[in-house]
């Protein structure tokens, strides 16, 4: 199971203003390891007309290699989707998958891109089966369209499908295949975030195979498919936002109950959750000292609850209040980098783009992320020269920033 390790970024300076803090909740494996869970995997592959050529050939190679890396207890479903969904493999054990080439050759790229139908198929296929991790993988190279082939402007209903899928205990990984100019990166990223999964970008089709194998390797290390962090905040303390930072970055959605739901934990590596908290000012009757601002409880079905308290030190000393935990402050800045890069995929205004790139550049330099700082600098130069960035550039930067917290 896990122990809870709680650390704040700094003490609070006693003043007339609210103070903001980053709390890192680290789920630290204590050695009580459980067996890795087998997978129930559903792969939906875009078979629209735009997939013809190299993308289609590389997708078939990637799928065959993915199947070769399944473990004996895993189960797989596979379908192509375009104007409709065409299931070709339905919940088969890994050792019963044979003659894949003939199976894949039954699919011919043609038609439009009904991503909504693909997500419906994933959710209906991943029926609940105790003791399995349910993962959907959506691979697409194009914009979500209507049945008539028109690009769908309002993607909210499809995002809601991903939310419903996650709430039902499943995970959605989304792969953007080919040049990001051909699809809506912001939509695909939002789709995977709301599905509590991972966004992968294979701008070169030949990358798809290794990306899927790496994803599968990590999925095979999952030992707990669901956990909940229950927050009990002291009076006046507010939770503003939160994210999972390690082993993979994932923005987390807040709800009114202040329960944070986590998916697919590993017991061989820590999981770090970052919480942005706002603490109230001390009342005139309260003396300087340490006060409990939150109680954190980790709950899983497999183990007894783990409980810990968060104490925040209030001090009148400006110098003492500036004793910053540099490790957590670095995580905060990296969280900022990820938020900025995600926002970058959603905007077209050059001034906003310039501001976000400048913030990414500054935060990356402060945290030693030299490659990301260099990438942001190059994109700023391009922005000054041409007034715009390509969808590939913004998506490539997001791909790089989301690797910051990765644990190999």
List the helices and strands and how they pair.
Elements: E1 2-8, E2 12-13, E3 19-29, E4 39-46, H1 54-68, E5 75-81, E6 85-93, H2 100-105, H3 115-125, E7 133-140, H4 156-167, E8 171-177, H5 185-194, E9 199-202, H6 208-219, E10 224-233, E11 238-246, E12 250-252, E13 259-265, E14 271-279, E15 289-300, E16 306-315, H7 318-321, H8 326-344, H9 350-367, H10 370-386, H11 391-401
Parallel strand pairs: 2-16, 4-5, 4-7, 7-8, 8-9
Antiparallel strand pairs: 1-3, 3-14, 5-6, 10-13, 10-15, 11-12, 11-14, 15-16
Helix pairs in contact: 1-6, 3-4, 4-5, 8-9, 8-11, 9-10, 10-11
What does this structure look like?
By secondary structure, the protein is an alpha/beta fold. It has 11 helices and 16 strands. Strand 15 and strand 16 form a beta hairpin. Helix 8 runs antiparallel to helix 11 (391-401). The protein starts with a strand and ends in a 7-residue tail after the last helix. The mean pLDDT is 90.
Uncertain runs with pLDDT below 50, 5 residues or more? none
Strand content: 25-35%
Structural category is alpha/beta
Helix content: 25-40%
Global morphology: globular
Number of beta strands: 16
Biggest sheet character: 6 strands, mixed
Question: Which terms would index this structure?
Answer:
alpha/beta; 408 residues
